[in-house]
Design a protein that fits this description.
The chain has about 280 residues and is α/β, with parallel strands linked by helices. About 35% of the residues lie in helices and about 30% in strands. It has two domains: about 140 residues, Rossmann fold (3-Layer(aba) Sandwich); about 100 residues, Dihydrodipicolinate Reductase, domain 2, CATH 3.30.360.10. The protein has a six-stranded mixed beta sheet, with helices on one face. It has a five-stranded parallel beta sheet with strand order 2-1-3-4-5, with helices on both faces. α2 runs antiparallel to α3, α4 packs parallel to α5 and α7 crosses α9. The chain starts with 6 loop residues before the first strand and ends with a helix.
């Protein structure tokens, strides 16, 4: 990125992902992240979220929201009202009411990115370049781990957006049928441990199988693409060193470029997150 004014981003959320953003920004010269979590949290508790977002909108070039899903959509709606550039996590909402509000207040030219690992991963881009979407016959996705375990978020909403995002990135046809089953491993103290098996058939004849959830014995992230000509390609997400930018660095870089150009880049992260959210709200 060209050497210009350092962009300032207000970070809301100081948990695992919030800290990831702060740590990642230390290696970047084009932006600086300021943790405003406590200020926003105090106003959130007394129903004055709109006031604090309006105040910080005049001090920052954009916001990064990395809060728990139950809170994120409320903050996102207020950020959209002031039309500030924003990065959010998946899922973008847990209920239809918030989802409709997000779509209502999102302006046509709103700069909004959703942190979806695969969409900002150079390895996934190289993998995707090996085939055309319409050449896919069967897509299989395995994505899960032992945890996280949250009392206020279903494992389906915690994990499925990852796999659904990949599905909507690779399959462009209309959904015809959806079948699913759920393996409930245990549920106690309002904490659910389960895995979802999802079967999706598209009007093109393409089929998708997804297994995802927080009940895997260990971390698994694998994509297999079976083509009409019987060729197969595999993508396994592993810990690795990155030759250029990490996915999070690339996300922040594209976010900064969009802000400087005052328009969204060609990245489709929000549109894919929207399709995934619509799918979840309709079926679960």
């Amino acid at each position: 990125m060209e050497n210009k004014k350092i962009l300032k981003f207000g970070l809301i959320g100081n948990g695992k992902w919030g800290n990831n953003y702060k740590k990642t920004s230390e290696n970047l010269k084009f932006c600086k992240i300021f943790d405003i979590t406590q200020d926003v949290k105090s106003k959130y508790k007394i129903n004055k979220l709109d006031e604090i977002i309006y105040y910080f909108n005049n001090k920052f070039d954009g916001f990064i929201i990395a809060t728990p899903p139950m809170i994120q959509s409320k903050i996102l709606i207020e950020v959209l009202k002031v039309r500030s550039p924003v990065i959010v996590e998946k899922p973008i909402s847990l209920n239809i009411k918030d989802f409709e509000q997000i779509l209502k207040f999102k302006s046509k030219n709103q700069i909004i990115f959703v942190n979806h690992y695969h969409l900002f991963c150079n390895r996934f881009k190289t993998f995707h370049e090996k085939f055309e979407n319409n050449s896919i016959k069967i897509l299989k996705i395995y994505d899960g781990n032992w945890g996280p375990f949250r009392p206020d978020v279903s494992p389906i909403y915690d994990w499925a957006p990852h796999s659904l995002g990949i599905m909507f990135k690779l399959i462009n046809s209309k959904i015809e049928n959806v079948y699913f089953s759920k393996d409930n491993i245990t549920k106690n103290k309002n904490i659910e441990i389960s895995n979802l098996k999802l079967y999706v058939k598209f009007s093109s004849g393409q089929r998708v199988f997804i297994k995802t959830g927080n009940g895997f014995k260990k971390r698994k992230s694998q994509i297999s693409v079976h083509l009409n000509d019987k060729k197969r390609y595999y993508f396994v997400n592993e810990k690795q060193s990155f030759d250029e930018m990490t996915p999070l660095e690339k996300l922040l870089n594209e976010f900064a470029i969009s802000i400087r150009k005052n328009k969204i880049t060609c990245n489709t992260s929000f549109n894919i997150a929207k399709l995934s959210n619509e799918f979840l709200l309709k079926n679960f």
